[in-house]
Input
Amino acid sequence: MSALDQKVLYIGGFGRSGSTLVERILGQLPGFCSAGEIVFLWQRGLIDGQLCGCGTPVPECDFWARVGKTAFGGWDQIDAHEMLALQKRVDRNRYIPSMVAPRLRPAAQADFERYTDVLSRLYRGIGEVAGARVVIDASKHASTAFLLRKVPNLDPRVVHLVRDSRGVAYSWTKEVKKPEVTGGDDAFMPQYSPSSSGRQWVAYNLLFDALGTIDKTMILRYEALMANPREGLERILAHADEPVTAESFAFLGDGYVDLGCDHTVAGNPMRFHQGRLDLRLDQAWTTKLPERDRKVVTAITWPLQLRYGYSKKDSK
Output
């Protein structure tokens, strides 16, 4: 990688593992820019016009307008529908083998090269507009993490975020409104049964384990970060080859964090929060997830649970 490459800190893993909170915290570090879930920029941001983290629809947000101008000469110079179709032809988990070995899918090479060029311009545009050494992408998708390895002029650093599978399963059973959707009926985030979320938790984490065999990734436990935020942040900075300075953690207090305004695309509703936010470990699943469901999730996920340092017994 060249010293001129744009550094991208990519947060990967299964949804409801705390990625939006981790991304927002990281976004307060000097030289870092929290961009949300870039994988959804074309559909949710530019086509659907959902809200940026600043509260303005993405197509009307000054920050994203400047990104479009810097990267492409303006969003009117690039067809978001075409980019979405191109993304679907390139960025899917089933295409991961051909990302590692392009000879497995030679007919897709032209699409692959075109889309990675677009991503290169996009991430570098975000970094330039934000004046950021590090752009944070919390898309979580494994295929995108593999894809970023092939994007020209990027230096991707992957943080593999894991959370106790039972906590994740409980979170997916809750009804969560999507405040970024405007101009229509109430929209809610999807819900999964404990057995479905357990299977997906295994699949997502195995894919990131596979990435870790060919590239250096960092495994970060959500629970460990909440227990000692500064230590977790220092580990991430070391993984990103970024320095720890006297100003690095000015936003971090004793059990809380001060959040500014971030221009994020998609993510958990807490991405809209500004000001003080208490940092506490969410362990509601230990009392609210029915015992039968806990047993189902544990039966599906326990080998990986043990690998990541979790006990089969409930963590209090």
Remarks:
- Residues 6-307 form a domain with the Rossmann fold fold (CATH 3.40.50.300).
- The radius of gyration is 19 Å.
- Residues 109-130 form the longest helix (22 residues).
- The mean pLDDT is 94.
